[in-house]
Design brief:
The protein is mainly α. The protein contains nine helices and five strands, in the order H-H-H-H-H-H-E-E-E-H-E-E-H-H. The strands form two sheets. A three-stranded antiparallel β-sheet has the order 3-5-4. Strands 1-2 form a two-stranded antiparallel sheet. A hairpin with a 5-residue loop joins strand 4 and strand 5 (186-190). Helix 2 (21-39) packs parallel to helix 9 and helix 4 (84-101) packs antiparallel against helix 5. The longest helix has 25 residues, at 51-75.
């Protein structure tokens, strides 16, 4: 419970930095959770043993969505309202509460796969194995009007041998962009966030397009997570949402 309560707010907070992303990902996760809750209310043998837990989840998530949707309209590009850390912690706390008190924390984590990946990918900088600048948001190129991956500069302090091996390995796996000088020495490396990695993979983008693509990815991954949960549940649980037993 402690891990869920700590992870959910902070994971949304570190997958942020472009207009609409914090609120947008929260809306996608909340919508998928409401859909998941609804599956327990339409079972043939109603009520399901978990009906009350999922009704509790819906009671919290519907007002949350009612608050978040108008906020998103003002926070999306070009933003007129900025949410900061406050909304991220609020949203993550709501998800932690419904996951813990609704007794479906494993299902909740399936919807947080992009956030889990972002945390693991960010860990080298979060734990200072790689230098971490104060802000790792994408870089805005005023000439093109597009967002590009932000970078960590190595011109004053070159990477150690282990850091160099680590970054070159990620570069070969297409998980990092590294820039070198004419002598082959590393000068810059892209910052370790999913947002920057998306720009490494697919190139510079307008801010609104970047946000939309990340939200579509969040929805697809979350949908696949629910598909796995409700089609392979009996491999882990004794009963699924349709009342089928092992």
């Amino acid at each position: 419970m402690a891990a869920i309560a700590i992870f959910c707010p902070n994971s949304i907070n570190i997958l942020a930095g472009v207009n609409g992303l914090e609120v947008g990902q929260s809306i996608v996760i909340a919508s998928l959770l409401v859909f998941n809750d609804a599956l327990y209310l339409i079972v043939p043998n109603y009520p399901h043993p978990a009906t009350d837990s999922h009704l509790f989840s819906i009671y919290l998530l519907l007002p949350f969505l009612a608050v978040s949707l108008p906020l998103y309209l003002n926070n999306k590009y070009p933003a007129r309202v900025f949410v900061g850390d406050t909304y991220c912690y609020f949203a993550g706390t709501v998800f932690a509460v419904v996951g813990i008190l609704g007794h479906f924390s494993k299902t909740l984590l399936l919807l947080f796969i992009p956030q889990i990946f972002n945390f693991i990918y960010s860990a080298p900088q979060l734990f200072r194995l790689i230098p971490c600048p104060r802000h790792r948001m994408p870089h805005f190129n005023a000439r093109t009007g597009l967002l590009e991956p932000s970078t960590t500069k190595w011109d004053t302090t070159p990477p150690s041998r282990l850091q160099k091996i680590f970054m070159e390995t990620l570069e070969k796996l297409k998980l990092l962009e590294v820039r070198r000088d004419d002598a082959g020495k590393i000068q810059e490396s892209s910052n370790f966030t999913l947002i920057n990695l998306w720009l490494v993979w697919f190139g510079p983008k307008r801010e609104d397009r970047l946000t939309n693509e990340l939200l579509i990815m969040q929805a697809i991954v979350g949908g696949l997570g629910l598909f796995v949960r409700h089609n392979f549940a009996l491999l882990i649980f004794e009963v699924d949402n349709l009342g089928r037993w092992q």
